[in-house]
Write a structure and sequence with these properties.
The structure is a single chain. With about 190 residues, the protein is an alpha/beta fold. The protein folds into 2 domains: about 5-110, Rhodanese-like domain (Oxidized Rhodanese, domain 1); about 115-185, no CATH class. About 45% of the residues lie in helices and about 10% in strands. Strands 1-6-5-2-4 form a 5-stranded parallel sheet. Strands 3-7 form a two-stranded antiparallel ribbon.
Length: about 190
């Protein structure tokens, strides 16, 4: 079955002209949460009911729907389902989100929550201290010692200065630690 296609660059140019294309992302919710194109709708291909989607959309019936997935296979399946249902304006975005990113086009990325960032920072500082102590000077053991004192302080008081610092980093300002499982540490 012949499926109409568009390159990521062509679609992005349409977006820049203010054409506001309707983009349907048929990846899983987990894939979609990690990286996505701003303004897209996510319905996994295995949950896509074409008739229901067409009945519920607010756009004109002849407006194209641009469909993508990770690399193109699931999006092609979705396009074929739209075409089989009588909707000829389902357009495959060539190469999916992988090609979109490879072209350097903008995406939204999920920032790891503050709790995860704290864990990575603590692990990295401990490892750094141990490696430096083993290779340069035992005085570098002060680093994991300091980090351990911080963990004890956080456990006893329910406050974590490191989490407070990380929550104020530029990459966390929009999310403000969204999704963090440790609300007491974000006070």
């Amino acid at each position: 079955m012949k499926v109409p296609t568009i390159t990521p660059v062509e679609l992005f140019q349409m977006m820049n002209r203010g054409e506001n294309p309707e983009i349907l992302d048929v990846r899983t919710p987990a894939e979609y949460e990690k990286v996505r194109i701003s303004g897209t709708t996510n319905i996994p291909v295995d949950r896509l009911n074409v008739r229901e989607y067409l009945n519920n959309r607010k756009a004109s019936p002849d407006k194209p729907i641009y469909i993508l997935c990770k690399g193109g296979t699931r999006a092609r399946m979705a396009c074929e389902r739209f075409i089989e249902a009588g909707f000829a304006n389902a357009v495959l975005i060539e190469g999916g989100i992988m090609q979109w990113e490879a072209c350097g086009l903008p995406v939204e990325r999920q920032v790891p929550n503050v709790e995860s960032q704290v864990r990575v920072t603590i692990g990295a500082l401990n490892l750094l201290g141990v490696v430096l102590a083993a290779t340069i000077s035992p005085y570098f053991l002060v680093i994991p010692g300091f980090v351990s004192c911080g963990l004890i302080f956080a456990g006893v008081t329910g406050r974590c200065p490191l989490a407070n610092v990380i929550a104020r980093m530029p990459w966390n300002r929009t999310a403000a630690g969204a999704g963090c499982c440790m609300p007491a540490m974000n006070k």
